Fold this protein.
Amino acid sequence: MDPFIVKAIQLLLSLSLLIVLHEFGHFIPAKLFKTRVEKFFLFFDVKFALFKKKIGDTVYGIGWLPLGGYVKISGMIDESMDKEQMAQPPQEWEFRSKPAWQRLIIMLGGVTVNLVLGFLLFMMILFVWGTNYVGPDEMPEGFAIVDEFKEFGFEDGDRVLQINGEDLQNSLDINRKLFMRDVNTVTVLHQNGAEETISIPENIGEQMFEEGIMQPFIPIQRPILDSIAPETAASLAGLQKGDSIISINDQEIGYWHEMTKNTRANKSTEMEIVFERDGEIKSVMATPDEDGILGVTPRRDFEVKTQEYGFAESITEGFKDGYWTLRDYVYQFKYVFTKKGATQVGGFGAIGGMFPDAWNWQAFWHTTALISIILAFMNILPIPALDGGHVMFLLYEIITGRKPNEKFMEYAQMVGFFILIALVLYANGNDIYRAIFDK
């Protein structure tokens, strides 16, 4: 099956699951507090619905516009902007008639479900599949180090032993931890057998982001292609899995890090790639993107081990995975407000790209757990029209003892809705722009 179709199916299945459970997070406490729910929809039913059925007081359905989902709760100022209902006297079954603490619980329900679901999925993944890792003993050749990091004292061939004095189980985590965590020291084993603890600058994550050095540590391995990302320079040039790179612009390539260094030096510049395929020497012309990326990954030359977990261990370790996933996402969110970060914001195309090309349940659930935690964080942002906007106004009411003016709430909801639409258009516009111009 075409990789695009596989990714699209996974994206649709994952988002459908997360949206339905998120809305149940609002639906269940609303019912517990005897608040009428008029609609429960997966996707938006603008003008018409693909399916709908009324059960009790609630119409359940599936809309045609796959941009989310919603529950319409009686007596609540939401994206439906039902002014006619709000103009009527409050009824006991309406959202606006309930105590502020009940309304707060109803609004926090969706975020809570997404957060808990993400943590539970991480626990399930560890219990069923364990976690893969590559220790320093599995990487006898060590890492190739980019020139910018050699200034700190790192050397080609280094094996990473510790971060901040604690053993690093998976050596391949070094780049992510340097970018997102507070790394003060890295202990390495040089190829001459000497151990050294190297101090790391305080703003190393920002430096990596601004200079586009997201992989300062590259495993030393042969330049044999393992996968080709669709619609990238490598894919368009006709490179295939199993191709062995020989040279780039007449410069011999012996290891993968030499190839990476060469493509970075030829950002947005056409170059000749000579490679071997099935015993034949061939060549193609390819142009890396503005970050020097071709869109290929190497075949692993090192052993990948699996750490298995018992039931109790999977709970504690899965909780840690969930915590650090949330913490890392919140930490890197600040880059969205930079000029470079704004251009990298993605929509459904970027989310779909997070899924693997071939169906893999472990990867599917891991990506779904990540998206669930991201949705929890994004939904709690204090923007009107998001759950966080409603929570913000409810907290104001609880603290001051006064409800915000309904007209003000209507205008705030309208402004928030247009902000969200603008963000959705911008993010998906970035996807379209990259698909057209990053070729």
Remarks:
- The longest helix spans residues 406-437.
- The chain has three domains: 1-130+308-378+394-413, 136-219, 224-298.
- The chain has 14 helices and 16 strands.
- The radius of gyration is 25 Å.
